[in-house]
Amino acid sequence: MESRDDVRTLVKEMMKNKLDSFLELHGFSRKKNTMKYVRTTREANQEIEMTLFLKPNYEKGAYAHIYPNLTVTMPSVNKISLEMAGDKLLLANAPDITLRQPLELVAPKECRIRWFVKGDNWMEGVGSSMKAFLQKWVLEFLNGYATPLDIVNCYEKQDRRVIIQEHMYIHIASAYIILGDSKSALEVLEKNFHSKVAIKRYAKAFEYFNK
Predict the structure, then answer these.
(1) Is residue 134 within 8 Å of residue 40, measured between CB atoms?
(2) Rounded distance, CA 162 to CA 112, Å?
(3) What number of other Cβ atoms are within 10 A of residue 69's Cβ?
């Protein structure tokens, strides 16, 4: 097994046999030739996508490391975030994405799992392990990260499952605005963008509150 296509074929077969039916029960769907599951809720689009690192030198005998990512898109949040930032580069050059991070990060560090492709007979175990991980950690997270209110709740609770990069504070402020709490939205910026450099970089976001 040498090519990326061979590995992708194995992974897609595993997904078909082990994950498709399970995730369909939770509202996700997957197009036949992709390695991505998609779910649309009232206020968000959510994705679980399998990415591959071929021939990882950190795992003996592995043809590939399966490294899933999750993505959440909330159009209402993203729209305000772009208006506030004024530049898509200030939103990680991905203004259509509200949250994107490795799947494993929604579980405590001691519960994280690495999945490897080591041959045909290896994949059933990988699929079973991944299904259990999705059920225990990922679905619970995604069910609780699907609205602007969820974004705010995670921020206020300092939910460690969400990796906060700098641009995320713009999304958090936008969520507060949607909820009608401009005061808290501004406080997010003032608390997290307090250096001269950050204040200058996000000047347009601060100006948003002077409209």
Answers:
(1) no
(2) 15
(3) 16
What pTM was estimated for this model as a whole? 0.94
CA dist 12 and 36 (Å) reads 10
* Dist. CA 211–CA 121, nearest whole Å: 62
Question: In this predicted model, what pLDDT tens digit does every residue of 69-122 receive, in sequence order?
Answer: 999 999 999 999 999 999 999 999 999 999 999 999 999 999 999 999 998 888
Domain residue spans of the chain: 4-210
Cα end-to-end span (Å), the chain: 60
**In whole angstroms, what is the distance from residue 127 CA to residue 114 CA?**
12
Residue range 178-199, pLDDT digits in tens: 999 999 999 999 999 989 999 9
Give the separation between CA 178 and CA 122, rounded to whole angstroms: 47
CA atoms of 52 and 59, how far apart (whole Å): 14
CA distance 169 to 150: 14
In this structure, the dihedral spanned by the alpha carbons of residues 149, 209, 198 and 167, taken in order and rounded to 10 degrees, is: 30
CA distance 189 to 29: 37
**Angstrom distance (rounded) from CA 99 to CA 10:** 28
List strand residue ranges (DSSP E) for 99-173, in order. 99-102, 115-117
